[in-house]
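Record 1 of the preview.
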Amino acid sequence: MKYHRPETIDDALKILDELGAATKVLAGGQDVVPLMNQGRLAPVNIVDLKSLKRLSGVQVDGATIVIGALTTHRSIERSETIQNGCGLLAEAASQIGGGLQVRNRGTIGGALCSGNPVYDFAPCLCALDAEVRLLSVHGERRLSCSDFFLDAHQTALGVNELLTEVIVPASNGSSGFSYKKLKFSDGCYSIASAACVVELNANGSFHRVRLALGAISALPQRVGSVEAELVGSALSEDALSRVSMAAEQSVEAPITDVHADGEYRRSMAGVMARRALLGAVQRARGT
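->
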């Protein structure tokens, strides 16, 4: 195995273009290193991004918040910019399992590029209508996060591309958010999760609802069937029941693994969706 540590983004892109598919990019190492230790991953080349300081940090760009791919989970959790402009990500980052060691080392870019369906940021970014910026020596691509994920552990990232930024529309004052997840212990992967963002009208009715599920199936998924249906209505027991039912019915191929079987995950999708909607409305109301 050959180790590469580029000093600039341009150098990293050139290396990726030259080396091709037998290469793994190392960001925080929370996904790649355990797989190598287990013998499940043996790349010919490792490209370590530690020196690329420009890929770390959070900035406001007009009506969007731009998060560098090497920004750690802990930095996202503690960033006032993110707390004020897209607090859903800060809430999700605070719930990432494994303790402070994982949150201090893991990065948002690494988590997304792993394509692991039980990781926390994917459903949140889908609910936020976020995009990712992908660079190669041939130019730039921007994809919605919903289009970035193709299957479990598979993304639209090309072998010669580098994910450099996550672009998130900033929230407004009338919005509320909530991220709910089910896990058996702090170090356990998520069994089911739901991310919800709501905007309320002056009379308290729904102006806009965005709801996404995670850890249920191979891809994060928006529950579009109920998002439009709720617009103009108020929060009620009937609305919560409809959201729960729609979330369950939207799950076509739930994951079965050592943590939970598929049918349990399907039923928990409804529970998490209900809790996320209720939590988002309560935050929007300031209650």
